[in-house]
Amino acid sequence: DDVLGEVPKAFIVLKNNKDPEVVKESLQDFLKDKIAVYKIPKYFEIRESLPKSKSGKIQKLKLK
Prior knowledge:
InterPro entries: AMP-bd_C, AMP-bd_C_sf, Mitochondrial_ACSM. The protein is of the alpha+beta class. Helix content is 20%, strand content 16%.
């Protein structure tokens, strides 16, 4: 954003060939009741998998 320079983004790995748009909308609706509005991701990226290290941890720096 213009103030802090960061914007929330969610990375989604779909299972069972679900419709990406339906998943995005469902996730946004779910989060509205759980977290503050400014924390709800403005961007969603659908991925086949998340980058992981040899120990199985998600490599967050590769997602930026």
